[in-house]
Specification:
Blueprint: H1 2-8, H2 13-34, E1 42-45, H3 46-50, E2 59-65, H4 68-75, H5 81-96, E3 101-105, E4 108-113, E5 116-125, E6 131-135, E7 141-145, H6 147-160, H7 164-179, H8 185-195, H9 206-218, E8 226-228, E9 235-237, H10 243-253, H11 260-268, E10 288-289, E11 295-303, E12 306-310, H12 311-316, E13 326-334, E14 343-349, E15 363-366, E16 369-373, E17 378-388, E18 391-402
Helix pairs in contact: 2-5, 7-8, 9-10
Length: 408
């Protein structure tokens, strides 16, 4: 059942063809500028290239191989030739898509469609098979990336495990998207690959296979500086304090006396619509979900004009909220870069007998703050979504336990 569910997360043929056609058009446009013939100078890299991306993935990372003479030209620039190269590539692609939003900065040219983005990296192939690419930050420099060994290792691991490698990678992406925390795709693939090095996985049930992997994740050192990527041994830096380790420890507790279906529901959102309220909405049906950053919400519980405890303190103390309290929710922490345009959406879900006929669950546009009040008994929840360019890049959810008669 778990593997069957993982298979549903794989990109569809229709999705694959749609993005391939977009990439081919961009490839041909750049060929017309830099080469005498149209050939395939593009390489799909990232999770798509490694075969570990899930359906509705929002990022397609593409290397476009440029002639060496172009490197010589832009390397001679006195000031940030890397930025000039990115701008030149962007302007050429702009001729193909004049109405499409594009950016050429940092290390990529971003071509932003309404259902995702192609991040194109102008690259120069080196004699060792690696690629040199521009970085326009801090005055400009050239960096090296090694995607081909990562792709080769992933393809080999997929073949040797009869795609168990891919299925676990799919599940981990769905897990982090559904639960709302950052977990780098290359790190996911690396840790899955390491887990499957032990041949004993073949003798495990699907539930044991998944539990074993969460067990491995929970034992990782969340304070280490970096991990070495599969195939390339490039450093994957730990820039979010290994949040996946804490999340894995919580997930591991769910396996006590669990069934495959209960695990799929608890960790991945399987069949969540079967328990929906009338008119309840789910963010996955409204936007692409690709969690890249961490977000934390909390709530000031206020009564009669006096501030009491934080809602997280109520939950930690196992207290329940009484009637007549004002709940001031807000985003209290996030590592979303300030330069990203972000809209905040909210969902308030009330449950229980008293809420029948008055159930909520719609998703609505708001700000970083939300005001609610305690009304109905039950274990309600509030969820916040950070959305940038039509993609959910961060989310968080908090329980709201209410007992209007006996709560504090």
């Amino acid at each position: 059942m778990i593997i069957d569910y993982a298979k549903t997360l794989e990109r569809s043929e229709e999705e694959i063809i749609k993005w391939e056609n977009r990439i081919i058009k961009i490839n041909n446009k750049l060929c017309d500028k830099y080469y005498l013939e149209r050939d395939n100078y593009s390489i799909l890299v990232g999770s798509v290239g490694r075969g570990t991306a899930i359906t509705k993935t929002s990022d397609y990372d593409v290397l476009f191989k440029l002639p060496q003479s172009l490197y010589t030209k832009f390397d001679k620039y006195e000031s940030n030739g890397q930025s000039q190269l990115l701008q030149e590539i962007k302007n050429i692609i702009k001729e193909l898509h004049p109405k499409t939003k594009m950016k050429g900065d940092g290390q990529v040219v971003s071509i932003e469609y309404n259902d995702g983005v192609i991040e194109l990296v102008p690259a120069f192939e080196q004699s060792d098979g690696n690629f040199k690419y521009p970085d326009s930050n801090n005055g400009g420099c050239w960096k090296v990336t090694k995607p081909l060994p990562e792709i080769e290792c992933s393809v080999k691991k997929s073949k040797n495990t009869s795609k168990t490698f891919n299925y676990l990678c799919f599940l981990m992406r769905q897990w982090k998207n559904h639960n709302g925390f950052s977990f780098k795709g290359l790190l996911i693939d690396t840790l899955v690959s390491e887990y499957l090095e032990d041949e004993s996985y073949k003798n495990k049930t699907e539930l044991q296979l998944l539990e074993g992997f969460f067990g491995q994740l929970s034992k990782e050192n969340k304070e280490q500086s970096y991990w070495y990527a599969l195939g390339s041994n490039q450093k994957i830096y730990n820039d979010d304090n290994g949040k996946f380790v804490t999340k894995a420890k919580k997930a591991l507790k769910k396996f006590d006396e669990a069934t495959e279906e209960s695990i799929l529901k608890d960790l991945f959102g399987y069949k969540q619509s079967e328990q929906q309220a009338t008119n309840e909405e789910f963010i996955e049906n409204k936007f692409i979900v690709d969690i890249r950053f961490n977000l934390k919400i909390d709530c000031d519980v206020i009564q009669n004009g006096f501030r009491g405890m934080k809602l997280t303190e109520y939950i930690r103390s196992k207290f329940r909220l009484g009637r007549g309290k004002t709940l001031n929710f807000s985003v209290i922490n996030s590592n979303i870069p300030s330069y990203l345009p972000v809209n905040y959406y909210w969902k308030v879900r009330n449950v229980g007998r008293e809420a029948l006929g008055k159930e909520r669950g719609q998703i609505f546009l708001g700000s970083k703050k939300l005001i609610e009040h305690t009304s109905f008994n039950g274990n309600h929840y509030v969820e916040c979504y950070a959305i940038s360019d039509g993609i959910v890049i961060a989310r968080d959810k908090i329980k709201v336990p209410i007992d209007v008669l006996h709560g504090r």
